[in-house]
Amino acid sequence: FEALAQRIRELVEKAGIKDQVIITEKGIGVEIAFRGGLFFDSGLAEPRPEARKIVTDLIQEVSKEKDKFFYLVEGHTDGVPIRSKIYASNWELSSVRACSVLRIFEEAGIDRTHLKAVGYADTRKVVEEKSVDGVYDVRALDQNRRVVIKVLRQPDS
């Protein structure tokens, strides 16, 4: 996955969003973590146009070998409880965000059997969000509010 990870790094750098994306090569695939501020407006699940473009570009890169890969899209929220008539909790918001990104893969022609979406709400924080005195750190909230796309080796059927 080293060559794939490098191609994705080049794509992210070309898009000018290197500081908003973390790419990690693992033995089973490549993990691409996008900060939530890049993808979504607060409390909403529809990807911003620039997020849609970067996912479309990513799909074009990985689809060269699309039958080899399985795509897992994870939605994560920060720990601030959501107050919305649309989403009852961060569980729903994170799940719908993951599904909205997964839909871009499906629209691009990726076989549905190669796709999976999961919402984690605020259960997998990257950093602690509150200071010792209980005040939220805006930068920490942004880091935890994210979408992770995992390009994994297709499991044998």
Could you characterize what this model shows?
The chain is an alpha+beta fold. It is built from 5 helices and 5 strands. A hairpin with a 2-residue loop joins strand 1 and strand 2. It is globular and about 50 Å long. The mean pLDDT is 90.
Rg calculated over all Cα atoms: 16 Å
Tell me how many strands there are: 5
Write out the strand line-up for the largest beta sheet, numbering strands in chain order: 1-2-5-3-4
Count the DSSP helices. 5
Strand content bin: 15-25%
Largest beta-sheet details: 5 strands, mixed
Outline of the structure:
This protein has helices at about 1-15, 35-40, 50-60, 90-105, 140-145, and strands at about 20-25, 30-35, 70-75, 115-120, 145-155. With about 160 residues, it is α+β, with helices and mostly antiparallel strands.
What features would you highlight for this structure?
single chain; alpha+beta; five-stranded mixed β-sheet; 5 helices; globular
SSE topology:
Blueprint: H1 2-15, E1 21-26, E2 29-35, H2 36-39, H3 49-62, E3 69-76, H4 90-107, E4 115-119, H5 138-144, E5 146-153
